[in-house]
Write a structure and sequence with these properties.
This protein is an alpha/beta fold. Helices cover 40% and strands 20% of the residues.
């Protein structure tokens, strides 16, 4: 079974991926795989570096893409795998997965998590506003594409138990 766990920044994808591994479930955090995802300029499709100074215009001009061939190779090499991540071309890749789980969290909690996270994304007010705006669009779209919503506001052990239940419930 191939499962995608997705959600906007701060919903807990990387944390869940790491916890699933401790439970013996093969889980891959897309952010941890070199060259799986990259930033590109929307009009030219040229790869770009994740800018140190980012403003709203930078995010409007660029998108984070998952390399389809690299993704296919990962999925082909595993009969059972959970992929955790989000990327701009996610809707084009949904049919590769047997099940999609959408991590959701209220926005106040997202802000707390974005401020505390190890990643350099989500710490600025601009980025937090982008996440808020994207969450309003992304979550309903994912649900309309068969994603199973899981609320991550609860304590992590309860969230993990719920996700494992969703993974095992075919």
């Amino acid at each position: 079974m191939k499962i995608l766990i997705t959600g906007v920044a701060g919903t807990g994808k990387s944390t869940i991926s790491n916890l699933l591994i401790t439970k013996g479930i093969i889980s891959v955090d897309v952010s941890a795989v070199p060259n799986l995802c990259y930033w590109r300029e929307k009009t030219t499709n040229n790869k770009v570096e994740f800018a140190k100074k980012r403003n709203e215009k930078w995010f409007e001009s660029n998108e984070r893409i998952c390399d389809p061939q690299h993704l296919s190779t990962i999925l082909i090499n595993h009969d059972n795998i959970v992929l955790c991540g989000s990327f701009s071309n996610i809707f084009e890749r949904l049919l590769l997965f047997d099940k999609v789980i959408l991590l959701q969290c209220n926005f106040d909690e997202l802000i707390v998590r974005l401020r505390k996270r190890n990643s350099n994304y989500g710490k600025t007010k601009i980025e937090q506003n982008i996440v808020k705006k994207w969450q309003k669009v992304f979550d309903p779209q994912m649900i309309s594409h068969r994603a199973i919503p899981v609320n991550t506001d609860a304590p992590i052990n309860i969230v993990l138990k719920n996700i494992i239940h969703q993974i095992n419930n075919i």
